Amino acid sequence: MPEQRVKQATIRIRRAVQQDNAQIRKIVAASLADFGISVEFSGLDAAIGAAGLPDSSNAIELVAELDDEVVGCLALEALSDGQAKLFGFHVSQACRGLGVGRALLTQALTAARQAGFRVLHLDTWDSMDSAIRLYESMGWCAAENPPPESGTNRSYVLQLA
């Protein structure tokens, strides 16, 4: 996977492995807490909580490393008809604004295309301004809002093909 230099540090994006799981869970829990959201690894956040584990059903799981430390993550779930859902996109607070999220999302789009996905979906919270700006800058378009039980209040879609 490609590397990108930023502020004297190297961002490396790679597939998640089992040894990454504890750090992924830590990043997700802290990131959600920053927005006043409680993590639910036994519920809504179970799929990202399984990232890197052998029994994970996620189609794609990526982590971002900065100076050999996992500082970001995301995953994609295969849907039907060439579609997938991107979720669990989180970057450690100390590493936000350094290009980690953009590098991670860029590699996710490349991996999704390589896997044959043509359309990506994601759900988010309208309070996650930086993430929304990133999505929109990369061509994601607002979609119909998700149902209340989704745990979010805003949806986006991206045509890859």
TrEMBL record:
SUPFAM superfamilies: Acyl-CoA N-acyltransferases (Nat). The keyword Lyase does not apply. InterPro entries: Acyl_CoA_acyltransferase (IPR016181), GNAT_dom (IPR000182), NAT_camello-type (IPR050769). CDD domains: NAT_SF. Pfam families: Acetyltransf_1. Keywords: Transferase. Residues 11-161 form the N-acetyltransferase domain. PANTHER family: GNAT FAMILY N-ACETYLTRANSFERASE, LD18367P. This is GNAT family N-acetyltransferase.
